[in-house]
């Protein structure tokens, strides 16, 4: 083959490979997949040592509640997660003795419906309101205090500390606690306050006083009648005595 023809073919191929065109354009870069929805149970499973707490989160339905809150709203969540050894420290049969409602309250008591960073514990206002409900004394009070780097938690039944930071992303914070947080409402219920004695109304008291006065009236009238009768008898006796004395004179 003629060398000039070879050079011509080589030149054409070189031009085809270096000229911009649709065939030679690189394919666009694939965008990274967005992160998956926040799942509390998966976070705890990855951390390990929270088997019992995970089981209770699922059986009570609280896990589904948290999933919806974290992925359908901007509200943060803080969870105090007891380890398996914490549940082992409970008296035998404690969990089985609870009703379904009480088990829900127990797990909700470990959840604060707002994000609390580790630095916020020093300035937080007590008592904290948990997802279990009323934070008043005798119900579901949860108090957090700090001493140096130690975070203390009291419930009125349980005293414990935060032993580790499991997870934090600015919306969800999970802290490990050394004991199961037992709420007063479930484990130390207070007897209801006695009802106040009914007060006697003024109109009723006035009526009773009037009735009492009316009851005394017959006795007073009888006494007056007896006095008048005695006086009349004495006058009659004096008159008769005077007439008899005059007659014999």
Automatic annotation (TrEMBL):
It comes from the Eukaryota. Keywords: Cell membrane, Glycoprotein, GPI-anchor, Lipoprotein, Membrane, Proteoglycan, Signal. The keyword Protein biosynthesis does not apply. Residues 186-223 are annotated as: Disordered. Residues 37-181 form the FAS1 domain. InterPro entries: FAS1_domain, FLA_A. The keyword Cell membrane applies. One of its GO terms (cellular component) is side of membrane. GO terms for biological process: plant-type secondary cell wall biogenesis. Belongs to the fasciclin-like AGP family. This is FAS1 domain.
């Amino acid at each position: 083959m003629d060398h000039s023809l070879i050079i011509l073919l080589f030149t054409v191929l070189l031009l085809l490979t270096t000229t911009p065109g649709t065939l030679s354009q690189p394919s666009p870069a694939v965008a990274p997949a967005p992160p998956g929805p926040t799942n509390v149970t998966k976070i705890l499973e990855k951390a390990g040592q929270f088997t019992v707490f995970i089981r209770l989160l699922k059986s009570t339905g609280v896990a589904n509640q948290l999933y919806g809150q974290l992925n359908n709203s901007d509200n943060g969540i803080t969870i105090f997660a007891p380890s398996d050894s914490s549940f082992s420290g409970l008296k035998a049969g404690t969990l089985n003795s609870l009703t379904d409602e009480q088990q829900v309250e127990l797990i909700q008591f470990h959840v604060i419906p707002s994000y609390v960073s580790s630095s916020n514990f020093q300035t937080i206002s007590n008592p904290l309101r948990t997802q279990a409900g009323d934070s008043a004394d005798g119900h579901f009070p949860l108090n957090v205090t700090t001493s140096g780097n130690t975070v203390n938690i009291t419930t009125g039944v349980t005293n414990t500390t935060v032993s580790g930071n499991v997870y934090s992303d600015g919306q969800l914070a999970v802290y490990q606690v050394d004991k199961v947080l037992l709420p007063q409402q479930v484990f130390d219920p207070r007897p209801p306050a006695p009802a106040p004695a009914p007060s006697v109304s003024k109109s009723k008291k006035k009526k009773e006083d009037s009735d009492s006065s009316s009851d005394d009236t017959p006795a007073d009238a009888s006494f007056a009648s007896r006095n008048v009768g005695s006086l009349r008898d004495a006058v009659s006796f004096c008159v008769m005595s005077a007439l008899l004395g005059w007659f014999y004179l």
